[in-house]
Amino acid sequence: MEISPGAVHLPGWLTPEQQRELVTACRAWATGPVPIRHTRLPRGGVMSVQTVCIGWHWQPYKYTRTADDVNGERVAEFPDWMVQLGRRALLDAYGDTEGAAAYTPDTALINFYDGQAKLGMHQDKDERSSAPVVSLSIGDTCVFRVGNTETRTKPYTDIELASGDLFVFGGPSRYVYHGVPKVYEGTADPATGLASGRLNITMRVTGLTD
Ligand code: MD3
Ligand code: FE
């Protein structure tokens, strides 16, 4: 369903098997070459969410190939199978065959939330491309807050994101403020391979070249 123009939520889009495969892949990325970490913020804080990146390494407010804030290693390659998954996501969300075929995400941020983790309201503006962001959720259900492009406050809409859900943010919704105010601890189905917590994968186009 379309939450706002360009913001499409497809609940239960991933099969249980796809969820298990993504959990396995994300577990491997979480251990290296750049281990998952609580991202340090410029003003000295650390995020409660833990993040590991593939393709390009994100830290506020830039993307680099190497993780100079972690261990200096180059991040893992962005696999072709994930490009294909991103294209299928765009096709199912928008029904735009040509737009989907042209979509070539080159980075993903993989966020892990424990029961206490939150993500404050923010815009994603570190990419030099306005191509859509594809979001996949696995594990615990959360409250996802979708706001507006002008302020980090009201008006906003709270929706629940559950395991297997796809969300695509493009067009007029690409630069909306959004956040995760609450994770419902203990709601994950262990059959996905994630006994507790929430995993979110966001594919993006950085617009960068080496
Ligand atoms: C709307 N992640 O990594 S996913 C992020 O659940 C981020 O981990 C959240 O916000 C999470 O930056 C939300 C949904 C999402 C991701 C990116 C967006 C919504 C977006 C970019 C633009 C607009
Ligand atoms: Fe975001």
Strand and helix layout:
Blueprint: E1 2-4, E2 7-10, H1 16-31, E3 37-40, E4 46-54, E5 57-59, E6 62-64, H2 80-94, H3 97-102, E7 107-113, E8 119-122, E9 133-139, E10 142-146, E11 157-161, E12 166-169, E13 178-183, E14 198-204
Antiparallel strand pairs: 1-2, 2-12, 3-4, 4-7, 5-6, 7-14, 8-13, 9-12, 9-14, 10-11, 10-13
The structure holds N-(carboxycarbonyl)-S-(naphthalen-2-ylmethyl)-L-cysteine (MD3) and fe (iii) ion (FE).
The site of fe (iii) ion has 3 residues, from loops.
Helix tally equals 3
Strand content: 25-35%
Look at the structure and give the CATH class.
Mainly Beta
Strand order of the largest sheet: 1-2-12-9-14-7-4-3
Task: Please name the fourth-level CATH homologous superfamily.
Answer: Alpha-ketoglutarate-dependent dioxygenase AlkB-like
Measured between the Cα atoms of the first and last residue, the distance is 37 Å
InterPro entries: Alkb, AlkB-like, AlkB-like_sf, Oxoglu/Fe-dep_dioxygenase_dom
Binding site for Fe cation: 122, 124, 178
GO molecular function, one term: broad specificity oxidative DNA demethylase activity
Protein name: Alpha-ketoglutarate-dependent dioxygenase AlkB
